[in-house]
Automatic annotation (TrEMBL), chains A, B:
It comes from the Bacteria. It comes from Arachidicoccus rhizosphaerae. Homodimer. Pfam families: HGTP_anticodon (PF03129), tRNA-synt_His (PF13393). L-histidine binds at D103, L104, T105, R133, Q147, D151, R293, Y297, Y298. It catalyses: tRNA(His) + L-histidine + ATP = L-histidyl-tRNA(His) + AMP + diphosphate + H(+). Belongs to the class-II aminoacyl-tRNA synthetase family. This is Histidine--tRNA ligase. InterPro entries: aa-tRNA-synth_II, aa-tRNA-synth_II/BPL/LPL, Anticodon-bd, Anticodon-bd_dom_sf, His-tRNA-ligase, HisRS-like_core, HisRS/HisZ. GO terms for molecular function: ATP binding; histidine-tRNA ligase activity. It is an enzyme of class 6 (ligase). Gene3D superfamilies: Anticodon-binding domain, Bira Bifunctional Protein, Domain 2.
Length: 461, 461
């Protein structure tokens, strides 16, 4: 049997694990410096927790887990009936009581709802875990991928948005990825809809605006016509989409265009506060009134991150929402959150060569195996080096040096160490740096000196 | 709707996450110092990869994922037929093509089989990921739990066993858990079977011996009788189980008892080599001929770890196997591996209070919110402290001090910081340590001094 991986899933070998850990560790540390604390939830949730939360299309993409014990004869008839329901596009607990999490937001909401009595609010959590979606796999889209979210819930204060903007800024600065932090406010989009045909047009307008990047202004106007907006309304929307200039210039223009809408003006006030606050500390915040963030549950500030120098979709996004836990019976939990698109950030860093020189987690020194007696003499030195933090391997069998050299080269191990029978008697060790050819015999009892030699920068031949 | 967690699964809040990370980080670092490198495989595997690998009982406990797209009318008839197969205790790819991994060994074998052309052997990997089993949940047994494995494959050298013994020793030394590393060799058990009725009795003898701890010698003898062993044979097994004394004394006795079996003598030679090697460096290695490690695929050295001062099952185990990847069509890949039982290690550390003083990952200082103007003055100081590595929060709204003090107390934040309008003018900051009552006004531009104050050990009131 020739084994294979399920479509849309990946093995991560150590090179990839180290790069991903570097990204996640950088972000994790920043979250913690801002007072966010980690949460981990199980991979599987009760099916009722997940179904109906992501729209009809989402329900189909949730991986459902087959119940165990279906070979119990007493259950056969009911299970047959359950299957008929599945054919109708429904799910049935007779067949599947559990499913794999589809994102980190609903499990977080479920956690807050279950524990709201004992949590201290505002509650700041971050969560970095895989999620699963039965999407058609394609380049850059996987069926198992990590999400990396942080949210503050239980507070409507705009200071939370300020903090999240600074988290984005510091994370991408630390990763050395040049980005633009794009910002808008759903209240302004709502205000635009209010002025162009009323609140019930908000969805139509948002869907059309969301496509601007891909299809261009003319097509957006066509779509708006099809969606029943009239010439005068489309004209306002065109003016809206044509707002350009510095952040301040844009704010002035929007205030003129949407002055009739109280909602929009509230959105402008919020944006002005954030932009003022960030103006000295975060250079890359860019107002973008065309930013809509699809059809989700956001109600205030929305964010999106674009890499400045690499063509790639958004590498992060988020926003404010009014009601995290209402669906689970707990009211009045507003919040704001952001997420980092780990797979895309990885791709951007590869393209910009940003991992170079940052990862040095492979084995540092290979001890040659000269035989059973020599190993026993070398082993205490090996152990002391490991205790001093040096990643050290011992070749597994006493074969020709040639083969041992090749092993070191193939694994990219820079140093080799030799302790033969004479060296044991004299307390000596020979260390050689393969890329440069440097080598030296030294005192095997002076561990500090060996460590120092292993940490010396050397030029390749 | 009142939300709940699936049976046998857990949320990990930040206190637990930090403790678990401490354990995993300690072990991970030691793996890497011994030249092991991380591997991550997907949560789901093709169902053919998993089924038939864990015995009939195991097959039932594998969580299978329902195929998506079952509402496609063209598939209905076939899916109905598939369900009838499920009722017969078989699985059907028409219904389920994927399943959640049940352990880390089979996915590792699948990875090695798929990539053996490009891997450098001996290949040393570690893997720390959750696995899922549809076991009946009970105290200490979960349906989602982490495994933590390291294996060397492609080498039959005993030096690998030496390294694994030292990894165990260093890991538990670092975690400060007193343990006994119990060791045996399957060749000795095979030799015992050889002498007592032939190789075909190995399974019967192993099963019976494995129960010694739980049921005692008399019951083991009864079971052996039931399993068809005669008086003479049982007498040999009793002598075997009664071997006591120091490691060396035990080796001498086994050499006398099983001298007729070449296999057993090879096992003794291997054990003697390991015990000799470890005698100066690892004090806690204990020969235990009653150790059997159940009915698995081990063929040479076997290990098991017991906490010395806490009553708990084994907190680690492993051994040598002949053939990792044969099931996947790749021959001649012997190996040896060990695993750490993370959940039990966690429980032992809680019981021995070993986490105390080791985790300090909560927020260190809370800045009080005195209003919009004051926040803007304080924010640059907050940002500089974060850059200096201090975990810093800003209270989200300008409410009474009382409420802000309470927040700090509830969250266990030791320091609070106050920058009011006067302090802004004078470049001052007031820092107060809540547990001791210590407080001081200092220069807000001297970040080093503030950091030093925050890092000072202070006595509680």
């Amino acid at each position: 049997m020739k084994p294979s991986l399920p479509q849309g899933t990946r093995d991560f070998s150590h090179e990839v694990v180290y790069k991903r850990q570097y990204i996640l560790q950088t972000i994790r540390q920043i979250f913690e410096r801002y007072g966010f604390q980690p949460l981990e939830t199980p991979a599987m949730e009760n099916i009722d927790t997940l179904m109906g939360k992501y729209g009809e299309e989402g329900d189909k993409l949730i991986f459902k887990i087959l119940n165990n014990g279906l070979d119990n004869p007493n259950k056969e008839q009911k299970t047959r009936e359950a299957l008929e329901e599945v054919f109708q596009g429904k799910w049935s607990k007779q067949l599947t009581e559990r499913a794999l999490r589809y994102d980190l937001t609903i499990p977080f909401a479920r956690f807050v709802a279950m524990n709201h009595g004992s949590l201290v609010f505002p509650f700041k959590r971050y969560q970095i875990q895989p999620v699963w979606r039965a999407d058609r796999p394609q380049r850059g889209r996987y069926r198992e991928f990590y999400q990396c979210d942080c949210d503050v819930v239980g507070s409507s204060s705009l200071i939370n948005e300020v903090e999240l903007i600074h988290i984005y800024d510091q994370a991408f600065t630390s990763l050395q990825i040049p980005v633009s932090i794009q910002i808008n406010n759903r209240k302004i989009l709502a205000g635009l809809a209010e002025i162009c045909g009323g609140q019930e047009q908000l969805t139509d307008i948002t869907i059309a605006i969301d496509k601007l990047d891909k299809i261009g202004l003319e097509k957006v106007k066509e779509e708006l016509t099809q969606r029943g907006l009239d010439q005068a309304q489309i004209e306002v929307i065109e003016q809206y989409l044509n707002i350009k200039g510095s952040n301040n210039e844009q704010l002035t223009q929007i205030e003129q265009l949407l002055s009739e809408s109280k909602q929009a003006m509230l959105g402008v006030t919020e944006l002005r506060y954030l932009l003022d606050f960030a103006k000295d500390s975060v250079k890359s915040v860019q107002l973008d009134f065309t930013l809509a963030r699809g059809l989700n549950y956001y109600t205030g500030t929305i964010f999106e991150i674009k890499a400045s120098t690499v063509k790639m979709g958004s590498i992060g996004g988020g926003g404010r929402y009014d009601d995290l836990t209402g669906l689970f019976g707990v009211k009045d939990v507003p919040g704001v959150g952001i997420s980092f698109g780990i797979d895309r950030i990885y791709d951007v860093m590869e393209e910009l060569n940003l991992f170079e020189g940052k990862l040095s987690q492979g084995t540092e020194v290979l001890f040659f195996n000269l035989g059973s007696y020599e190993i026993q003499g070398a082993y205490p030195v090996i152990q002391k080096l490991r205790q001093a933090g040096i990643r050290t391997e011992l070749y597994h069998e006493p074969v020709k040096f040639d083969k041992q050299f090749k092993f070191a080269e193939k694994k990219g191990i820079p140093y080799i160490a030799i302790i033969g029978s004479e060296e044991i008697t004299d307390n000596k060790i020979t260390i050689k740096h393969l890329p440069s050819g440097w080598q030296e015999q030294m005192d095997s009892t002076n561990i500090d000196h060996i460590v120092q030699a292993l940490h010396t920068q050397r030029e390749d031949k």
